[in-house]
Amino acid sequence: MVDSLTTNLINLFAIPLSFFLVILSILALQSFTINIVSRRLGNISFNHPYLFRAMNWWGVFIHELSHAITALLTLNKIKEFKVSSSGGHVTHYSNRSGFFQWLATQLISAAPAFVPPLIVAILLGYLHYIDLQKIPFNFASLEPIGVISGLYLDLIPYIVKTVGLRLVNLDYSRVENIMLLLILTFSFSAAKPSSIDKNKTGVQGDLQSLIEGFYKFPVYTLLSVLVFTGIFWILLKLNLALFLYVVMFLILLPILSIFALVCNYLFIRLTNLFDNSSKLRIVLSISALVLVYYFMKQYHVEQYMINIISAGVLVGILKLAK
Description:
The protein is mainly alpha-helical and about 325 residues long. The protein has a domain at about 1-80 and about 95-120 and about 170-275. It has twelve helices and two strands; from the N terminus they run ααββαααααααααα. It has helices spanning about 1-40, 50-75, 100-110, 115-125, 145-170, 175-185, 200, 205-215, 220-240, 240-275, 280-295, 300-320; strands at about 75-85, 85-95. Strands 1-2 form a two-stranded antiparallel sheet. Helix 6 crosses helix 10. It starts with a helix and ends with a helix.
């Protein structure tokens, strides 16, 4: 009986932790992808200074907007909202104190990792491009190994395949698809809590604030673990459909961020391609794109012509945007 009680107590925390670790691993991949894209962005700064500043400004704007939206939703007041191509900040305050204000502050610091993909997820749902209720999720048993394998081998591959095929085969004759692609390409370069060298700038970054919030308030940290563990089990036991919906959504968001960052990376590479490459390399690259489109056979020939012409228009804009 004692062994059974110990096992149940371990599973009480181990099973929610297994879900959290999977989500954390995707967020880590998202952060890694952002670092790669951020380093590549500087490659277009010399030949395309206006485009470079515009992309920086928009990335900072979305980052600070994420803080502002979360601050308002957690009943904080916005004192200052500042954005420029070189950086920005949001100053918020509240007359409250205690656990709920601490939790609100933590959510505000982490907001850039979740708000941009949330906007895209809402847009995808509005356009009927993805239906979370149809996403399958099966795990062999309700124990850590079964949960982790079910997420990695079933749910995540399905989301990646579904979202990937949808994004690759967008119909660019529709304005809403162009808007979706623009949002994906330019809104995620700063989609993570910022890290700032306080010794050089005198300003503390979101990441430092988030970490300090955990270790300076250990009681609140422990209480938040207990609260989220309780919510986890209440949802699981009382409403399985809602529980699965929440899990799918939390996994979908960082995956959308990664897809968006890939779009950003490809845009930067395309810009570099038409700046520095020989005509032969450009022709080969375009031919490869046409072949990929042909073998996917998702649309009729006219649609592919529209998409290829759209790519040509983009190339022309890049040449003029120096």
